[in-house]
Amino acid sequence: IAYYNSATWLLQIIVVLIGIVLTALLISKPRPWVKMGMKIYMIGLYSWISIVYYFIYCEERSYNGVMAMFWGVMAIIWIWDAITGYTTFERTHKYDLLSYVLLAMPFIYPMVSLARGLSFPEMTSPVMPCSVVVFTIGLLLAFSRKVNLLVILFLCHWALIAFSKVYVYKIPEDLLLASATVPAIYLFFKNYIARNLHKET
User: Fold this and answer.
1) What is the pLDDT of residues 14-28, one digit of tens each?
2) How is residue 1 annotated by DSSP?
């Protein structure tokens, strides 16, 4: 983590600023180009985690190639979504409070690290896997009318992995992800079942 943060902190700031601008535009002016821009951003963000974080800077960690592939698959899912237009990014306002909390979570991660007595560059940052997962879940909850459940299933899997990382890598911050994801997953599937209850399956 320290190696990654030291080498990429400036690029991480740029990635975060682009994310803030796109999220604000998506909430205030959800035009078609903004929606497509967010999907392209997600493709880039997931590719970043796959290549830059796992493949390059986590080379010394066990199974870094598997993790890079996992995130690469999610980037491909976002490419498919951008082509098909499956996720519509339409607001429902049903889960606004939880979605706003999750959208803020990437900035809470560093604060928890600081509270634990860590300092830069050893602390967690907003552009790390678990931060990206909670951001994505918060974004999809805010626009939950029609979401890509394949992305949700992959993120759910990642949240379960986060429990083990609390112990293995001594990162208790990941409890934030695990605890926040459980109610979100329930809401996504509840929403999906409610929309498809009349269909023959």
Assistant:
1) 999 999 999 999 999
2) -
Query: What does the alpha-carbon distance between residue 38 and residue 67 come to, in Å, rounded to a whole number?
Result: 23
- What is the C-alpha separation between 14 and 128, in angstroms, rounded? 14
Other C-beta atoms within 10 Å of 104: how many?
A: 12
pLDDT in tens, 60-112: 877 889 989 999 999 999 999 999 999 999 988 888 888 898 899 889 888 88
Whether pLDDT at 201 is above 60: no
Burial 168-196 (b: 16+ CB within 10 A, else e): eeebebbebbbebbeebbebbeebeeeee
Q: Identity (one letter) of the amino acid at 42? A: M
Higher pLDDT: 180 or 51? It is 51
Q: CB pairs under 8 A, 24+ apart, for 35-40?
A: 35/88, 35/89, 36/82, 38/89, 38/139, 39/78, 39/81, 39/82, 39/87, 40/82
What is the C-alpha to C-alpha distance for residues 144 and 151, in angstroms, rounded to an integer?
13
List the Cα angle 109/110/111 in 5-degree steps: 90
The tokens for 123 are: 């602390």
Q: Which two tokens stand for residue 41?
A: 């951003």
Length of the chain: 201
Q: Which amino acid is at 136?
A: T
Q: Give exposure, 131-155, as e/b (b: 16+ Cβ within 10 Å).
A: bbbbbbbbbbbbbbebbbbebbebb
